[in-house]
Automatic annotation (TrEMBL):
InterPro entries, per the entry: Haem_export_protD_CcmD
Main subcellular localisation: membrane
Pfam families (alphabetical): CcmD
Bilayer topology annotation: Single-pass membrane protein
Signal peptide annotation: none
NCBIfam families on file: cytochro_ccmD
Function comment: Required for the export of heme to the periplasm for the biogenesis of c-type cytochromes.
GO BP annotations, alphabetical order: cytochrome complex assembly; heme transport
Protein name: Heme exporter protein D
UniProt record similarity statement: Belongs to the CcmD/CycX/HelD family.
One cellular component (GO) term of this entry: plasma membrane
């Protein structure tokens, strides 16, 4: 299943690992930002409801 990478096996596998870590980091940052935006929006809407009565 795995192709023969010869003397570059460490470099290729390291590049895959770094890519996966970076992608997971981007996903984590995006999810965190979405949660914060949702909380902020809920707070703003609650204040608006309270003000408008």
């Amino acid at each position: 299943m795995m192709p023969d990478l010869g003397k570059y096996v460490v470099e290729v596998l390291s590049a895959y690992a770094v890519s996966i870590v970076l992608l997971l980091g981007l996903v984590w940052i995006s999810v965190r930002a979405a949660r914060k935006a949702r909380e902020t929006l809920a707070a703003v809407e609650a204040r608006k409801e309270k003000r408008d009565g």
